[in-house]
Design a protein that fits this description.
Largest sheet: 2 strands, antiparallel
Radius of gyration: 56 Å
Strand order of the largest sheet: 1-2
Structural class: mainly alpha
Number of helices: 12
Strand content: under 5%
Helix content: 55-70%
Length: 392
């Protein structure tokens, strides 16, 4: 490429020669004037060529630098994108980990029993043990009373009614009769004042949630005897039952004894419910207000089925703090408490159903007894056929 320089261009070229080309040895005259000769033009062209070459190299270097910088920026952008992606992946992984740990904690908490749940479990286990004990105790009490009514061996009535009367009257004077209460001498009766008339006081059975001592239990048993079967019959030797009438009388006697046993079993059920069965006193004191059942001085270690039911009820509805805690419960705990109360209600309803069943049986037995009595009064023997009157 060739350039044609004018006078002003020569002046510019001179400055470029001194500023950019330190190796160019121009005559000193060129520093002050510009001589438009061929040598000057040639020298200027050489200088311009060198400048253009440096500009080209500078441009090439700049382009390469820009390309390298652009590549580095592209690499940085790519790495930044990858880093951002990894950051989001790590964030998602962290969120997933947090969610999983939260779910594990919630599952653990849901399956981990609370203090109230442990208390309820203790009560349920106690209820199962107390129920089994009460059922066996009721069976044993009825068996003993049935044996007395049938003059079984080993009972006070095995030799007849008179022996049973002497046995029971002796206990009445020594245990349930207080001389000061009757204003009589100690040679007549010697019972303590607190035990006076306990054998005829309904509170001996219904007033106690747990019959703690043997004396309490004896008072309840004697009350049942006085209510249902105060007198045991005299034994009737089976070898003397030979005629049809004797067999009929014996069966009638067995029917009477069976009805007395049914009535006795009903009271024995109440009795057995109040016998000390399980050692839950410590648990009861832990969940009850002031560590005791309302209306009692203390809660015994061995409690009955009846007292256990009272504890499960009073620990909720007799304690104002229960309703305060209920308001502060989380929804999950409220649902648990509802399920617990429903289970307790179901247990009570089942017990009510059993009592209704027993009451129905007693009413049916009473109806049968009244019908039997009416038939006998009309000289109609039960089981005989009655001919229908002829028409017209």
């Amino acid at each position: 490429m060739k350039y044609k320089l004018t006078a002003p261009a020569c002046i510019v070229a001179s400055f470029l020669v001194f500023g950019l080309n330190s190796g160019f040895n121009a005559p000193s005259a060129y520093a002050k004037t510009c001589d438009p000769t061929d040598n000057d033009i040639q020298a200027a062209q050489m200088t311009i060529t060198r400048v253009n070459s440096r500009i080209d190299r500078l441009e090439l270097t700049l382009v390469q630098t820009l390309k390298l910088h652009a590549g580095q920026i592209s690499a940085y952008i790519s790495q930044q994108t990858t880093a951002i992606g990894r950051m989001f992946d790590a964030s998602n992984q962290s969120n997933a980990q947090i969610a999983r740990e939260t779910a594990e904690i919630k599952a653990t908490r849901d399956f981990m029993p609370s203090a109230g749940a442990c208390e309820t479990v203790s009560g349920v286990l106690g209820s199962k043990a107390a129920k089994a004990f009460a059922e066996q105790a009721a069976k044993d009490a009825t068996t003993a009373q049935t044996g007395r009514l049938t003059n079984s061996k080993g009972t006070p009535s095995q030799n007849g009614q008179s022996q049973d009367v002497v046995y029971r009257w002796d206990r009445r004077l020594k245990t349930w009769c207080n001389p000061e209460s009757l204003q009589t001498g100690e040679d007549v009766c010697s019972g303590l004042a607190g035990n006076h008339n306990a054998d005829i006081n309904p509170g001996s059975l219904y007033g106690a949630k747990t019959l703690e001592t043997e004396l309490d239990r004896q008072a309840a048993r004697d009350l049942i005897t006085n209510l249902v079967a105060p007198f045991a019959p005299d034994p009737l030797p089976l070898e003397n039952v030979n005629s049809e009438e004797e067999r009929r009388q014996q069966l009638k006697r067995l029917s009477t004894q069976a009805r007395l046993a049914l009535a006795t079993d009903t009271f024995n059920e109440r009795y057995a419910q109040r016998l000390p069965a399980v050692n839950l006193g410590e648990w009861a004191r832990a969940i009850l207000p002031d560590g005791q059942i309302p209306g009692t001085e203390d809660t015994p270690d061995n409690i009955s089925m009846k007292e256990l039911q009272t504890i499960l009820m009073s620990s909720r509805f007799d304690d104002p703090n229960y309703f305060v805690a209920l308001q502060a419960m989380e929804p999950e705990n409220v649902r648990r408490e509802m399920a617990t109360n429903q289970a307790l209600t179901l247990s009570l309803l089942f017990k009510i159903s059993e009592n209704i069943e027993r009451l129905t049986d007693i009413q049916a037995t009473r109806l049968a007894s009244e019908v039997e009595k009416e038939l006998l009064e009309n000289s109609i023997t039960p089981g005989t056929e009655i001919e229908a009157p002829e028409p017209g």
